């Protein structure tokens, strides 16, 4: 078996109507074959006084040009091929395709305007994968660039961070606080989002609400473990006195015994003071900012003893928020 047989030959790019993509891939293909110069410069032309060496170079160029034409014929379907059969050289075929499909300045301007609008409205869909969304985003960005738009990396990074679904809000805060966005590359952002997505997927749906039994000196209460959604939002700590909670008001019936796992909540919090086995009130004063921009007072901090699947656990550093209707467990503290 020859050495060349050990490697797969690169596939010839097929023209499917997307000229810019075909242009880029076909150019790269021809360059890899050392044939691109024929498309750029054409077959050299010498007069009647051409030397033997010049005539030989023309013959070699003609043979190579036939190879380029063969590649182009294979990449273009029959309907389009019939419109360029009168073109004698690969350069003429290429220029004809360019005039037909690259578009005039006015057409490109209109396309760019539409792409800008599409880019502005772009947002991540619920349950859409990070890979899929970034693929959609970069597809639009590449089309904008091919139409003459200058789009720098920081613009794309900012757009992606602004348009993620709510479950990524705490991730966005973390990225914004720990990175210089003007220097953060798209690949670095992509990798960071993938890591967080994998962590989210590792949590099973029934782990979002814990079934907890409280057994303490004040009595017993049992969590029913409802399956309604957990709260979401962006967890940025503004200052020592202000702690952010991603709690959102809900019209659904929420049992007071339910505890919600919250990836954006800065601290464990509850509105039920009877559950505390140890509590500190004197000199303790905080406030929490909710997802709807309202604030609630934190009047105490302490520990709660709970039973999870028959095992006793003590949860420390739990904030007492009298007005809070939902019990929140901060994933960052677990």
UniProtKB/TrEMBL annotation:
<dbReference type="InterPro" id="IPR054722">
    <property type="entry name" value="PolX-like_BBD"/>
</dbReference>
<feature type="region of interest" description="Disordered">
    <location>
        <begin position="216"/>
        <end position="238"/>
    </location>
</feature>
<feature type="domain" description="Retrovirus-related Pol polyprotein from transposon TNT 1-94-like beta-barrel">
    <location>
        <begin position="259"/>
        <end position="334"/>
    </location>
</feature>
<feature type="compositionally biased region" description="Basic residues">
    <location>
        <begin position="223"/>
        <end position="233"/>
    </location>
</feature>
<dbReference type="Pfam" id="PF14223">
    <property type="entry name" value="Retrotran_gag_2"/>
</dbReference>
<dbReference type="Pfam" id="PF22936">
    <property type="entry name" value="Pol_BBD"/>
</dbReference>
<protein>
    <submittedName>
        <fullName>Uncharacterized protein LOC113868411</fullName>
    </submittedName>
</protein>
